[in-house]
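Lecture 7 notes: from sequence to structure.
We start with the chain below.
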Amino acid sequence: MNKGIIYLIQPAELVGTNRYKIGMSNNPDLERCKKGYKKGSRYLCIMECIKPHDLENKIKEIFNNKFKLIAGNEYFEGDDQVMLKLFLEIIKQHNNTNNDNI
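Predicted structure tokens for the same chain:
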């Protein structure tokens, strides 16, 4: 089964704004987060998941309908607590759909 991580972060250059980034890695360790973002980044949530690419696409699709897309296809503007709650709900639904043992 394809395991990896999914995350919601505020890169260091966006701290002090209400802008956040969704990301994923097919590698289930934290190397992507450790090496991919500058010191001072805020990590709102990092979770292990199955089918991380599918989950990231699902989150981006739902976030596109709820928040303002500000850059690329994975940077969004909005309230961090609202985003985090929705992010966790989508992950829970995804995990329940794909693996009852998680």
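Points to note: Strands lie at 3-10, 19-25, 42-50, 68-71, 75-77. The radius of gyration is 13 Å.
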